[in-house]
Amino acid sequence: MTVLETERTAPPTGATAAIRPAVPGPAPESAQTKSGNRRQYVLFALFAFPNLLLIGVFAYWPILGNLALSLTDWDMISPMPNFIGLDNYTALFSDPGFIDVMRRTLIWVVAVVGSSLIFGLGMALLFNGGARGGKAVSTLAFTPHVISGAAVAAVWLFIFDPNYGLSRLLFNSIGMDSPHWTTDPDMALGALIIVAVWKGAGFVAIVYLAALQSIPRDVIEAAQLDGAGRWKTFTKIVWPLLTPTTFFLCVTQIIGAFQAFDLIAMMTSGGPAGSTTTLSWYIYEQGFQEFNIGSAAASSVFMFVILLLVTAVQMRFAERKVHYS
What we know:
The chain has 325 residues and is mostly helical. It has a domain at 96-149 and 180-321: Orthogonal Bundle (MetI-like fold), CATH 1.10.3720.10. Helices cover 71% and strands 1% of the residues. The protein has 14 helices and 2 strands; from the N terminus they run αααββααααααααααα. It has helices at residues 3-9, 15-19, 31-69, 87-93, 96-127, 134-146, 149-160, 166-173, 188-213, 217-225, 230-258, 262-267, 279-288, 293-321, and strands at 72-73, 82-83. It has a two-stranded antiparallel sheet. Strand 1 and strand 2 form a beta hairpin. Helix 4 crosses helix 14 (293-321), helix 6 packs across helix 9 and helix 10 (217-225) packs across helix 11 (230-258). It is flat.
């Protein structure tokens, strides 16, 4: 072993130890720091507790109460619910009528959400073109979203009226009779989809328009200088940058479509012959018309699970396909 290696390995003693500076260790936490941290925790608890209490009382407690009711048989008249376990769920999934309701709900959700996204994106691209009067048109397109569902339903009931409405005038002008939009089982669900898309596409368009206007202009110009046409620029640059907005709209629109109630209640009341009975109306029908609270609660739990699974799948898909930068 050389002299240099001996000096490196030998422990510092005497004058050598005095010359070498001591390595500073972690400073002990003072009592004042601990007191400050404790005070911050107390302030956080004081500010957060009222919000947590409200969320617990008005969000989570009703969910637990509904789950408990789904295990009972109750008509809101008997003094106490009768516990029956999972019989309500067994009855639901063995009922062909409930299977038809779920099939109809799936058609409703896919048609409303898909059409709203397509028409909303198309309108946003038109508004983003900078045409004269674009702001006024975008405002008019957004207006149906802020109008109450009852008012929208009243307007469209008049439009769809086969005897006095605008539909009669349009079809008579081409020598045809107006369809019975809301009283024909083959037409009623399609009529509701038209109204729902008309009401919701404006909101989708405004959200997409905000996303389009936030895309850096130099990125688009660079693609155009490289020879990319409009379609290639949209598919390769604009659309990937719109995926976060599309993801947000998909989540919100799917939840809204599952919970749609006002248009159905005002225009068709689930009819004719159950042709517009979606899951949300079925829950209302079971609970407040048939007074079968257990079945209504079980259907609500089923809707909650569906929305939870759909959101989880969308979140999983977003990790791979959504580009946030």
